[in-house]
Amino acid sequence: MGTPMRSGMIRRPNETMRLIVTTFISIVFGFFLGVSFPTISLTKMNLPSTLLPSIDLGYIEDKYSGLSSQALLNVWSLIRHHKGLSSYEPEDTKIWVSTNPQGAQRLPPGIVASESDLYLRRLYGIPSEDLIIKPRYLVTFTVGYEQKENIDKAVKKFSENFSILLFHYDGRTTEWDEFEWSKRAIHVSVLKQTKWWYAKRFLHPDILAPYDYIFIWDEDLGLEDFDAERYISLVKKHGLEISQPGLSANSGLTWQMTRKRDDSEVHKEAEERDGWCTDPHLPPCAAFVEIMAPVFSRNAWRCVWHMIQLTRLNPDIQNDLVHGWGLDFALRRCAEPAHEKIGVVDAQWIVHQTVPSLGNQGNSENGKAPWEGVRERCQKEWATFQSRMTLAERAYLKEKGIEYNTSTNG
User: Superkingdom, according to UniProt (predicted)?
Assistant: First the structure.
């Protein structure tokens, strides 16, 4: 019995030494493995396809080059197991939801986001904490830098409840940063384009869905006596879907309908020259505002946006009308009853300064000044728009077997 005991006493130091050496080697090996792992390319690792399905690892590494491979794997693992979601994705799953937006029928409805917004967000932090306030209204100005002082005064009339969007037709954007508000505004710059060109391409109703009212205004408006919040309250009070502020007497006036009145908050009809109105409920005697300073409700804008640059009969020249002339006479089609839902707010008025800034963006041709060529195209577009609207309406009524009434259409 003594011999085994002595033998055990002799072997124990050897076992202890082997344990120490093994532990040391393991630590060293683990250290070097940990140091070298971040440099291992994910694209060279033989990972099972079920772990990273449909993922272009090369793209991920290029896009997130600042993260280690281990960090990327950790993020992916977190996503895969977030809230206990299974990583199982049957390959034979077929989705087709006919009520989804066009082109998105293969997506599960719960992931479809058909609307967006113009809210500016941070690049860090928690998304739900990005916005201190969500503006309820949008105001856009189509501007050139020469009108910066006037625009600065105008923008300051709008509270934090308004998102500010500037469309720059002269290509000058960074210069506007001299104004503190400009750093919080949205800037879109395309040379020598009109506000209706911008509106058709950048103000889609699904992008403006969060806004109750949309102001699409010119740059040559004086707002010294204008209060935007008060204006909104009057629009709501009188149930206006499409409106504009009254124009002061010292404005460049064309129509009696848009002239400011001193004895009312809002007016919805006017008397024009003899023969100008075939029906007192039709433009320009009612259901009418001008295109210099219109304000649309969300629903009205969805309709008007689809009508801008109407070319339904000839898809080869789609979106060819850019000045918006004639649009004011057709706005009534986007509010019902139009003579009740369209009006001019007298209690909040503006001055139309009639600065021909955009007209000077034209070219001199055939001995004509730049503004003359622009004005000539405006007039032609008005006639073209009216013709297209009439033909489209007649075609629809004919298809439905309804007789076209020339006294109430056009």
Answer: Eukaryota
Positive or negative: CA dihedral 162, 163, 167, 171: positive
Q: Is residue 95 in some structural domain?
A: no
Reported as type and span, the H/E element at residue 376 is helix 370-400
Q: Is residue 186 domain-resident?
A: yes
- Collapsing DSSP to helix, strand or coil, 86 comes out as coil
CA dihedral 216, 220, 223, 227 (to 10 degrees): 0
Q: The domain spanning residue 238 has which CATH number? A: 3.90.550
Q: Could you give the number of structural domains in the chain?
A: 1
In a 3-state reduction of DSSP, which class is residue 229? helix
The DSSP output letter for 100 is: S
Per the structure, the complete domain to which residue 238 belongs is given by 133-400
pTM of the model: 0.74
CA distance 266 to 17: 97
167-180 tens-digit pLDDT: 999 999 999 999 99
What is the Cα–Cα distance from 146 to 171, expressed in whole angstroms? 12
Does residue 24 lie within any of the structural domains? no
Question: Is residue 298 in a domain?
Answer: yes
